[in-house]
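Notes on consecutive records. When two proteins share a document, each keeps its own sequence and its own token line. Never mix them. Below: protein one.
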Amino acid sequence: MIVYDNAATPGWRIPVAKPARTGCTPPASFEGAAAIPMILAANANAQGSHVGEWRHRDAWDRPASNLQNAIRLARIAEEGKFDLLFLADGNGVRNLDKPDLFAATSPSDRPAVFEPVTLLSALAMVTEHIGLVATTTTTYDEPFAVARRFASLDHISGGRAGWNLVTTSNPGDALNFSKEAHAPREDRYARAGEFAEIVKGLWDSWADDAFPQDKASGRFLDPSRVHALNHKGAHFAVAGPLNAPRPVQGHPVIFSAGQSEMGKELSAQHADCVFAIEGTIERARALYADLKGRLPRHGRTADSLKILSGVTIFAAETAAEADALFQELEDLVSPAVGLDYLSKMIGHRMAGYPLDGPMPDLEDEHVGPTGIGKAILGVARAEGLTVRQTYKRILPQMAGNLFKGSALQVADQMEEWYRTQACDGFMIAAPVVPTGLERFIRLVVPELRRRGLFRHEYEGRTLRDNLGLPRPANRFFAPGGAA
């Protein structure tokens, strides 16, 4: 077990004693070890998953752009044998006119966050096993730059890099890239598909044995083992080859999060993992079946795509303690903050609607976010929620799902989602950082292990190994030296 005694990251331990079982026995059909371990990813947002978190007494002080906090969070997650850390990102700042509302803004829109690949390169130096996944947009970046960035991170980390492919949800980002307006959704997804194809082609520029670097013969590289992409398409012209060796994983793991029709099709064609947010287990099962069902059309098998459900977890020794923490955080949020966050998530300004009136029926399309927004509106419509009830519903989990209770209750919920094909694992956000993640690892992880659902040690050395994903073959070079 790692103990940290650096002055900048005070010492701490995660006890591994198993909690006593008191009731909450899982259904008989759930017994036995899982054939494939449940995937656990940690949301690396240093300000937690609740809008009121940063004001809580247990939250980190001064979390903005704090490297030591990021290091500690990565080590906590690795000590818990999590598969990966995930960093959201964007290219703009929102709410400058409302400084009290920055906590209601997602990490991708905040004014004091690290560029994610830079941060993950630093975290690669202080971790050994955990995957490192960063967000980069296909709308305001270039394929060659992204391919090089993530190939470099994969080499630096020894094969632990992942790229979260996004098309950008904030229309205001366009103004930072010499654009007068955000591109229409159809154009963004068309560009994203071509972008992903180029990036994968660039990662295959060099055969795995292209760089012998033999001092005795003086042969640094084999010029017969390189392929120039020479791509010319609707959106890009890229000659190649990439000026980086083939990544350790062949291709860094590609993640996506789109739940619109175009987003799901993009994921089915290019993604290895999908982050999904659905308000109920029934909706999650339907999405799971939908995404897996698309794969054969692209020559893929069901196990080639892993689906992670976004969830905020309030875990405590007892359900009453979890309820108390939940209420403490709720009490730190004003209606103004709640309305602002709700407006962002559904892409529609809500300030003019009565707090205790019904949520409006908003079916109009817009260029901002829609997948999560539609899920929120669907839950509000199905349950007849008011505006106030809707923002109170989403604030504790930043629009994701919410599991709350004792370790056994939380484990029961996770097991049901996992066993009944609502997901292959979870993107876990802690309501308060770092104590929420520490508490989850101390209380819930041992219970998941007792049920045969989660690992005791890492299975392999790369992120692909641990996720159960094969290393992609090079499309231009066959094994054993043939082109």
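Protein two starts on the next line and is unrelated to protein one.
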Amino acid sequence: MKILLTGANGYIGMRLLPKLLNMGHSVVCAVRDEKRLSVDAKTRSKIDIVEIDFLDDPENQKVPKDIDAAYYLIHSMTSSVTDFDEKEAQAAKNFNTILKNTQCQQVIYLSGIVNDKELSKHLSSRKNVEEILYKGPFNLTVLRAGIIVGSGSSSFEIIRDLCEKLPVMITPKWVLTKTQPIAIRDVIQFLTGVLGNEKTYDQSFDIGGPDILTYKDMLHGYAKVRGFKNWIFTVPVMTPKLSSYWLYFVTSTSYKLAMNLVDSMKMEVIAQDNRLQEMLGIKTHTYEEAIDLAFKKIEQNLVISSWKDSIASGQIKEDLENYIQVPKYGVLRDKKTIRIKDEDAVLQNVWRIGGENGWYYGNWLWKVRGFLDKLVGGPGLRRGRTHPDKIFPGDALDFWRVLLADKKSKRLLLFAEMKTPGEAWLEFKIEDGVLYQTATFRPKGLLGRMYWYSVLPFHLFIFGNMIRNIAKV
């Protein structure tokens, strides 16, 4: 089958893509920016790519007419607190219009469980998108899931941050809300199992794992799998706003996502039927099994995708292309060079920068800068990196965004998503046996210049020692 995969560079899309290719399907990946599709050259050679923004005029968006099915994996929850529901509705309407000119027979939409009488704004939006898609010129299959547990998922990373950093927690009362988590590999099984299955046409199905747990149970379950104990005490006085700040400062989530998650965590998310599980013969994994499987992926460096790599998790609101040309005029620079003997070995050091590997010098200072960034609403350092030695354009790298990662030209270009009174780039390039390290800052007014000169003394020894340590092989 020829399949259109929307949201191909998202958390679910990146997991689904290799599965579809292994099943022998022809896949057309729909992304806003082709350069941000984080796949290797071998995978890229097997797929077709179309650049589409489903919020733009649908008349200007083109997809192949001969697609047989499509996956709808588009959402805007991480990009806004106020109007993400309007964006999601518009994207769904535009999607319907675009597919009118194709022979698509089935669309598969991954939604949220919406069985509670009172729904959060997030879940109401998912239900509304479902209703819009049912009006499209195709057969719709809806899979409604709750908490998805897997390496790199937002839910897993939040639980991981909370448990690993806070053995004793004072928590809001929403931790007593019941939910039904499901392993990411089970979600992928359901998504592929309904493909082309006419028995699932024009129907909506709940999917969930075998356990119904409170969020408190999930936190204890994580600790059990990891081999330690944690203590959780609930208080009734923590407002949604305070809860959101609590999640934001303790975990790697953005404030916008924290607000939307807290809003949804007040609702019970429990599947009401197992029809699809019985129909497809799928045996789902328990919550503790899902945690264990996630860590096996992490330990083997096999994490394919992470929610943190979403552009919406940071500060950039436009295409990466708009930032990739480092300005030459009206900027302040810190440029350092060092002669090296082994270019390939040094390039590997460059490619491992950030995350668990650190920044080669003054890691505690980088952590302080990350903490200060969190205080003023930035991402801080907690996003880390998805893989220890692989980088793709668009990836999050602590409080940087990868603009360019070209091993052939031996160049890595990062753009700062930390809160600063200006715009900042950090570039590494190897040429003719020399490593070039350049920090560029385009200040915004007097405040920007004051900021640059206030941190310049730190640059002198941080950046100087950093390039020397990177050059060591």
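For the record: Residues 320 and 380 are 20 Å apart (CA to CA).
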